[in-house]
Write a structure and sequence with these properties.
Largest sheet: 8 strands, parallel
Order of helices and strands: EHEHEHEHHEHHHEHHEHEH
Structural class: alpha/beta
Number of strands: 8
Distance between the termini: 14 Å
CATH class: Alpha Beta
Helix content: 40-55%
Strand order of the largest sheet: 7-6-5-4-3-2-1-8
Radius of gyration: 17 Å
CATH topology: TIM Barrel
């Protein structure tokens, strides 16, 4: 059985003061939910404060990005060891990083390896653009992102990965994929790509999430699918009540 997993990606939102308020609103109801792995991914500036507020709870902390080098002249970047001081998780390869900041499958691969070297759990994002979706290229795109992004990773490390299927056309648009479509992509495209890279057992062990306009209202539609193991939540994770509803839906 794969433990359900729900992560909130706050993106570039919330000052430290605002982060404290949001965590204070959510922490008690989130702690009451059992059987779900829960993770909050605030901006770098709020990591220390959020980690302190959640100390002793079962809510994990994740970063939204890392650099693959251990240290050096990389102005504005954050090393894996710096993230590992406060976090157990890190989001890698989000479509916004790929589209706006030039991340590629190769840099994603470097970051995954860097994260694993510091015992960070990578939440690896894959997904197709609207034009690729309309051209029926989803299978080719996600298989290539899995194959190139996770090449060279040992099986014993691969089982630690969390994969998030995030169709780019559904992120922040209010146009969520259907639960059935998410199930087909994960079951028939992503898991076979993982099996080809590792093996069938590993592919069935790795948790695969859905992300893209997930809300408290539509979460049940996705979580009722057998191959959807949770969600990487964007905008709804900034609303305490909505994020709690999503986590409760995953627990069911």
């Amino acid at each position: 059985m794969r433990t359900p997993f729900v992560a909130g990606n706050w993106k570039m939102n919330k000052t430290v003061a605002e982060a404290r308020v949001l965590v204070s609103e959510m922490s008690q109801p989130l702690n009451a939910v059992k059987g779900v792995e829960k993770v909050l991914c605030p901006p770098f500036t709020a990591l220390l404060s959020v980690a302190a507020l959640l100390e002793g709870s079962d809510i994990g902390i994740g970063a939204q990005n890392i650099h693959w080098e251990t240290k050096g002249a990389f102005t504005g970047e954050v090393a894996p060891s710096m993230v590992a001081e406060f976090c157990h998780y890190v989001i890698i390869g989000h479509s916004e990083r790929r589209a706006m900041f030039g991340e590629t499958n190769d840099t994603v691969n470097k970051k995954i390896n860097a994260a694993l070297s510091m015992n960070l759990i990578p939440i690896v994002c894959v997904g197709e653009t609207l034009s690729e979706y309309e051209s029926q290229l989803t299978a080719d795109v996600v298989a290539r992102q899995v194959r190139e992004g996770m090449k060279g990773i040992r099986v014993e490390d691969a089982v630690k990965l969390v994969v998030a299927y995030e169709p780019v056309w559904a992120i922040g648009t209010g146009r969520a994929s259907s639960g059935q479509n998410a199930e087909v992509v994960i079951r028939d495209m992503i898991r076979p790509a993982l099996a080809a890279l590792f093996d069938e057992s590993t592919a069935q062990t790795i948790r695969v999430l859905y992300g893209g306009s997930v809300t408290g209202s539509n979460a049940n539609e996705f979580f009722s699918q057998p191959d959807v193991d949770g969600a990487l939540v964007g905008g709804a994770s900034l609303k305490g009540d909505d994020f709690v509803r999503i986590v409760y839906a995953a627990a069911k």
